[in-house]
Records
---
Amino acid sequence: MKKKLKLTGKFRNTERGYGFIELEEEDVEDIFVAPGQMKDALNGDRVEFIITNPKTGNRRAEGKILKVIEREKTEVVGVFQKSRGYGFVVPDDKKLGTDIFIPKEASKNAQNNDKVVVRITKYPMKGKNAEGKVIEILGKANQAGIDMLSLIKEYDLPYEFPEDVLSEARKIPQEIDQNEIPKRKDFREGFHIFTIDGEDAKDLDDAVCVRKNENGNYLLDVHIADVSHYVKEGSKLDREAILRGTSIYMLDRVIPMLPVELSNGICSLNAGVDRLALSCLMEINSEGKVVTSEVCKSVIRVTRRMSYTEVNQILNQLDNKIIAECKDYMEDFKLMEELAHILKDRRLKDGYLNLDIPESKIVLDEDGIAIDVKPYEVTFANEIIEQFMLTANETVAEKYYWLEAPFIYRVHEEPDYDKVKDTNKFLYSIGKKIKVMQNNIYPKAFSDVLDEIKGTEYEKVISTLILRTLKVARYEAENKGHFGIASKYYCHFTSPIRRYPDLFIHRIISNYNDYIRDGKIELMEEKADEYAKTSSEREKVATKVERDAEDIKKAEFMQDKVGEEYEGIVSSITGFGMFVELPSTVEGLVRFENFNSDEYFEYNEDLRVLRGGRTGKTYKIGDKVKIRVIFANKLLRRIDFELINDEQ
């Protein structure tokens, strides 16, 4: 009998009792693990397993875990529950798969409903829960601010800078070195340079200037803070930035990649002061093509700080006060608008995926409690900056690709053919299709569908469905193009204050000739590969934290809305119910038992449709439904709805 091959991967548990194993090879479908086949693995553990049933048709391969190779978590955050002679902790991570038993002597005198950090001392075995000891009491579960602190602890985020890193940051002067000016292009006089950000932004790392030259072409200058001038390779600041990888935004707080002395100080492109920058200077024709470009070190002085709201008010003649204040710059903003339209039109022709998925704006009171949730308003002022940054990122990536320089690219590969086929099964039901040419998938095929459903009831739903079909973008030292923006060359160059790949690219730009002279190209290529991997991992963590923070606050906002009725749209269909999204962007689950119907519903996975066996009543993605809120709990990060049927 042939011995089964032992494989390794990362185990991901679910709240529904089964799990999946992510294989360590890229682009391989996860392996399904049934209840009873998980051994003692917890969510996130690296495991050794065998395949018990190979993949057949649409059914995933199934596996059995043999042993845990490496534990992901030794410490867990959760709510302490006291009993007579012992206690237990219910983890915040509902996918962990076990409550944690706490002997009385290991409780640190924690009380009922305390949020605590627990160190696991024994992992679950043969049906027994894990065991642990309380090492920190954070506060009461519903106490203001404890929810975000719990997230910080749950993900072991570096929310404080080590003293030696802060000491290094404090030694950096808050004014530029005058000796640097002769070595750089000087943009301090004769140019109208603007930062355009949200009202609350403090780390301003990009500024723009738009003009026209004699032949009618546009001159777009994108100036980015020269962070690499201050964060030297191998310094304590640099090593800490590598560990953090990215800034993490948790609604009312930021865990920054760099200390405030840099992020809000000498590296921030504040108006009216001299700042060092790396500049991408582009000449762009009327078709939106970059005809010439240069990347150089510069010194700039921002003319005025603008917000997206102010620029929108100027472009749409909405506020006479701001229009009067900026009367000398009206031509600048009109040119920006003109150029951004040209750049966006060119991108859309190339197949740029203009997904209509509104972000949430969660409003907190002074205690950090959610008091409102609504869609984040995006104006064309946001679009201006997005188009300018996309163009600069493409231009820099292409330039350094042809130089064969060590580099970190932003990679977004084409989606899997099978996933596109699955998406098409649903699209066929509304008369649409993503066209596949001889198994080749092009961005234009996706953008054509998005164009066709623009302005229809399906727009948001199809945008979300297409997003789920796409692969996740990541960082790589090898250029593989960016499917989502239909670009052959792409990188992240424009945010070195908050992303490490951008900082690394700045270092390459500033020192490329020195690396060639000193024979360090091969070393920097190795570093590019290493930092691309670590930055991708840190980005995944940041995305999870930011999503969890939103889920907690949305559930908190809905806690006092139980019993209230709303109209929403079916956003997703599953084998256990359907998710409904409200106009506010809050999403909740309607389980089958809360359909308020004696109908039995069958789930058609291909069409993502629920169909009643008796009446033929169907529910599909995009349907409008009325719901009542029946449960909301921020500790569980859960919102449940029930359907209000027309006949009720």
---
Amino acid sequence: MEILLLIFPLLSFLLLQFFNKKIRTEFLYALNIFLYVLSFALSLYIFLKILNLNKDLPLLFYTLIKLDNFSIDWSLRFDLLVSSLIVVVIFIGLLLAIYSINLTKNHTINIKTNSYLSFSIFSVLFLISSNNLIQFFLAWYLIILSSYFMSNILGNKFDNSNIFFQNRISDLCFFLSLYFIYIFSNSINFDIIFQSLKIVENNITFFDRTFSSFDIVIFILLFSYLLRCRQFYISNSRYDLLNINTSSYVLILCGLYLPIGFYFILRFLTSTKLGLDYLNILLMLGSFFTFIFSILLIRTYNLKKLIIYIASAQLGILMILIGLTLYSAAVFHFFTSIISLLILCLSFGIISSKLNNEQDIRKMGNLIIKCPSMFLFILIGFISLLGIPYFSGFYSNQLIFFQFSLINQNSYFLIITYCFIYTFFISYIAFKIVLMVFLGQNNCNIHLYNKIEEGSYYLKFILFVLSIFIIFSGWYLSNLFYGNFGENLWRLVLVGDTKFSINHNFDNNEGFFETRYIICYFGMLLAFLNYFIIPKLGNNLRLQNNKLFKYYLKSFTSYNFK
């Protein structure tokens, strides 16, 4: 029955792609959503089935091809990580299938969007259920093909020779990494590969750091993914995210980019659990990403760039947690943050579409009067992302700080300080966006502003469902991640570690967690000062002639003298 998880999205793609002129559009939409509902129900069933398995390692396989004479055993792999990612990806696909029905009045574009969305979902499911290198390889290039289709729905014809060259390097790194994994393990099967990785002792030393051959290969695999994703940050290319429609953008970001990146890091983590230098590289790389994207967020006013920078910073946080071996906190934070990002993307997509696809938040303002429900949904998304009680993000952030007692004491205060700095940045940026879009001075096109109406009821229903998830899912899922049970479970699933026990007093970190709130509220207060109070003072003629005040306005606010 597990094979139906792949069949339903593929069937949806085929129906929308080849039968759109033979079946009535309304019936085609209904059939597409029905297939997603079946897929989502089946994904929940498989997740609960795996969670309740009476085994040390919750794991099951669905055999596709088995030929004993040729030693071929091709199966789909379903463990707790895979099944949980499947639930998230199909849930995103279901919501976007509903969302994209009336995205534009052009039914041809809507059908194409839904068709490629289904193909993308199929490709991701095919990747994360891989149990051998061949399926892993094929699924990755299906994902690349699907993202290419999604980004060209509206006919983007831009090209960039640098992007083409970087993509070919990414392809080469991906192929070589899989090739060397096969050479070292002499197998394409993941189970045999994971066992082989533990006995290989071929070490290489760089700058007094010791890495196994597999550490280097796995890092090259991760590097190929990061290099492929670089195309999303460059304009005037075939993959320019700023030019695609909202549902395509949300899918590439929340349904492809984040889950696959998380999967790439965790799938072969069992091979590097003893490689502390490799984990340190992940820690430094994640710290670099969060710092760079936090800085970019300060000076960015483009709505889609703001969202993708926030998402990239969240991926950096996940890499930091994995580098610190806080596995249950990393998985929990992934689930809570991706729901928050999903509600932010969809809500801002609705607002942008009502303003003729305007992306500059400086050309918005005072939209709380026209879109009060969107204001509420976006506020809920940001509050959860910031970890304010008692939304889902609160529980994942609490677990992160509680588990900081498990890390090396030499780097304890350095990590705490870095988290405080990031908390300040993200709270400042989040409140800046809310102020400029909803509470600031109205800079919208007056003709468009007067015509703005609240979104349709089914769009509000989607955001309402996501809001319910944001409010209650963290509390409901906390038992799966907290304490000895949660940490032991995810260490067993991710790295096969059966000899771990928590003997630390988590109450010692309560003070740091409360300090985080103070820093978070300080970031909000500073954003309120810079983007609400000070711009009003800018109308004062005496202050306008003050060079220091003018410099402050220019450097730290969006105020422009008229």
---
Amino acid sequence: MSHSNPSPHVPAGPVRPGPGARTVLRPAVTADIRGGFWRDRREVNARVGIPQGPELLESAGNLHDLRLAAGKAEGEFRGDYPFMDSDVHKWLEAASWQLGHAHDPALAADVERITALVAAAQQPDGYLNTWFQAGKGAGRYTDLRWGHELYCAGHLIQAAVAHHRSTGDKALLEVAVRFADQIDATFGPDKPIDGFDGHPEVETALVELYRETGERRYLDLAAYFVDRHGHGLLGGEAYCQDRVPLREQENVEGHAVRQLYLLAAAADLAAETGDGELLAACERLWTAMVATKTHVTGGLGAHHDEEDFGDPFELPNERAYCETCAAVASVHFGWRMALLTGRARYSDLIERTLFNGFLAGVSLDGERWLYVNPLQVRDGHTDTGGDQSARRTRWFRCACCPPNVMRLLASLEHYVASTDAGGLQLHQYATGRYGGLLGDAPAAVRVETDFPWSGTVRVTVEEGPADRPWTLSLRVPQWCAGHRVSVAGQDVPAAADDGWLRLERAWTAGEEVVLELDMAPRLVEADPRVDAVRGCVAIERGPLVYCLEGVDNPGGLDDVVLDPTGPLTEEEHPELLGGVTTVTAAGYRRTLPNDGWWPYRTTAGPAHTDARSTPRHDAGPALTAVPYYSWANREDGAMRVWVPTS
């Protein structure tokens, strides 16, 4: 096994394009979130979220099943699904990124212990899947549609790459390489099996393993898997991304997470190979997804059944699926597209998804989770519990989402900034230090901001090429109605180009740029083809989507009407929900006459009037909205994002 030895300037994050990659941008080399909103959320993840992992994996049986496979335990296999190993691997990845950020002896010991257990469970030829090793299935690779063997392998590989990049230790990487070699010997043209896993994941992991080891066959195997989808090998189901080849797709379809993981791999392959057809497919599918199948929160998935995207503009509220894992996968895909193309729109969606559809998936205390993220919970909702509950849950039978949240939060700094030969780009706004190479010259900036509560972003140049001008690019978010910028205390022209505010000059260390983004609350409405929210508005402020909760609006939410002509008032509440800014709106409650047993009435119109169809308007207090990510942290109850205006 040969490993590349990255220089100190090579970024150590989850996505590291190779030296010959055809990306417009490269991830920042220096990436350190040091304060503000995201530091606080990451500290909860580091203090509570990640450390609880081993105990929860023990109680759910994941570690017991690994000990069974390793011959270190007796008893019954406890896992309910063939993909239980992946929860362990995702936790290892999260813990590894955290160790790269701050060494923790207790966490390091847990990682070492569980890594040794994974290695002990691996079979001599490299194969590893406790479900099949326990005899739960018919045999290796006999159920590619549902077996998840390569899916689990993908998460193992990503954990191993994270561990190696963060610590330099090769123990987990050697396990992953043995498994990858076993897969490479088994799948492909003129190999024992011509097929692919029904849940994409191994594809993008193999690309990253190629980047880490320099072994070209891993890249070739990833390309083989991506292109075998869509040819009916698994029954031609959209659920498995097998209905149509990705290169021919016109819109995203099927299981949302599977589609997005496959697209992330296609973007990686386009970056490493220069495959223009794959790049065009990624751009086409991202654009169609955003235009027709994305909720206002950035959430994805309309159907509980098969965790499916649904049809164009089929974006329900109380039945919205919006799996937390789909939000994570959207960020992964979007970041690869941002690097590939340099376009700000991809980072716009990342921002929206991070602050809303993703962050709602974990409680403020880091101990409870949401698998699905609805946009409405009705008055009197009866919750049956389980993984698809609208109530925050300690853990799940299918616990894919919690460790997915852990690993993204632990590696979040690597999605903030990038560089190219001519400058440095800030994609997200988080207090910290970010830098990289502009060609062969280092550059770095320090960012200070109270974003998303304040729109002021201060960027101080710490170093840069002394012999030439270079460009500092600041993203102006799509939602922002106005902005201004100053350099060294002097206002400068602030026109944005395709979402980027590009400031080119011969920078001097210590010079400060101040960007002011308009953060005024606003009302937004959906495309009229979204039937579920026609006649409704949602409240936004900065990157945050807001919602009404029953705890703030006594009397129920089903009869609430928002007056769009009234003012929107913002107020800081440092004591509420960890410190938030609330927004209040004018509104009232409608009361429909109820003088019969039938709830449907003839509408009033030019040819017919019926006093019974005329609602009464009962004046009430102003409607109070809180950030969507913070809902369900005080008490269970009603919630809604979209509010009727009549």
---
Amino acid sequence: MNLHVLRSDPGLELVVLRALTRSLEVCSAVADTSGILIGVTESWAAFQGKNPFLAGQAVGASYADLCKSLSESSAGDLSIVAMGITGVMKGAVPRLALDYPVAEADGVHEYACTAVHPAGMPGVSAVIHIRDITERSARERRIRRSERLFKATTDNAMDLICLLDSSGRIIYHNPALQRLLGWPDQQIAEKSMQDLVHKDDLGRFGEALHKGVKAGLTQVFDYRITNPHGGWIDLEGQVSAVDDPGGHGESILLISRDISSRKQSERERAQVEIQLRHSQKLEAIGQLAAGIAHEINTPTQYIGDNTAFLRDAFKQTVGMVRTLESHLQSIRAGGGAAAAEATKALSALEEGDLGYLEEEIPKAIQESLEGVGRVTSIVGAMKDFSRPSGETLSHNDLHKAIESTIAVSRGEWKAVAEVETEFAPNLPLVPCFPGEINQVILNLIVNAAHAIKGREGKGGASQPGRIRIGTRIAGPEVEISVSDNGTGIPPEIQGRIFDPFFTTKPVGMGSGQGLSIVHGVITEKHKGRIELESALGVGTTFRIFLPLA
């Protein structure tokens, strides 16, 4: 390599060369073709340590003899370096770079040796450079330890650790993300975090990335990413800005924790609280309904008894009037003064249209009695429906509970459908909580009525609405089916209909709790199960299975 100087002047070149060699911390030397050192730097000449490749090796020393001696040394590292330098001096090795340790007075030092056989330089066999790299090696060991510690920490961390660029592309991720997603590294490398985040959370996620870059650290925020099964994983994340290890400005460190279990617990707790409030409300309504039913029952009984009395009394009165009419006709036929009075009385009876009254008043009384009977039936259904369930399962007549529920819910379905029942004969008493079963049947009947009403404008309104409720014994279980010929449930949402707060009804029409409560009552409180069959434009059937044991 040529020395470049300001002008072609041997004197200037010598000055520059001396200045360069004196300023170098590396110990350098030049050996001639016989292995004699013909030149060394000041650092080489001033060396005070025990490194055998430097100590005592002044100008004029035979470096070839030194290397021959050290190559036979029992110190393996020194032997290898010595043989390598010998090979360079002989021209067999063009360049050599080796590290080796030496025990100095203050401890073990590490040295880096570079030997070069310069081409095109007659009389020179090798240029040797030796540098103390103890501090550098220590730094490298510390870095390697840090890297191993970082790798061990991140590889075994349960939290997700991701390094993102400013656009959200994943630069690095620990194995936790791969375990969570179940994807290979290559597939993850092709994604950005925005590809994984739920669309409803993208705004919050992007804002967190922006704040992390701007402020250096964000508060903890929640977001969701997809899982291998097409669902969503709830995460809790925090963003901070870090230096890009690639030297391209700042990167974004995203540390996230899977909180799906916690979220599920919160949802379950919220569901339990909702059901508790719902149960308390139902209990209060049930107490109120029972009280109202009791209050209505007494005057209804008075009305029924009095109407029945009027029916019987009218029948007796009509009989007496007909008898009187017969006597008057006899008197009129006998002639005389009494005949004229009898004629007047018979005329009065005819003007009163006794025949019409005799025909219509019994009908009115009978209709009144039927109406009172209907009120009595509804009151009885309300009393049955509102009967408290108690703390433990009890054996109950399902058919009676279903009939009570049908009566109570009549206002929901009477304008849109007819209700048909098909009850299994000789159905045994079933262990259940009757109040909760009443609520389940009520929710299903109301949903069926709404589905039938929803057919309007969809080409199915001309078909009569029909709700069928049936029971049957299915092995160790009893099955209750509630079917309708309504709009049906779209296949894409059938898996979500039992989720809390999920509803397809317009705002104000439903809270999304009805079917969720149905599912909870059947599966949790009764250890039963519920199945769904539905087809768009055909209708829906819910099948409830309760254990008979």
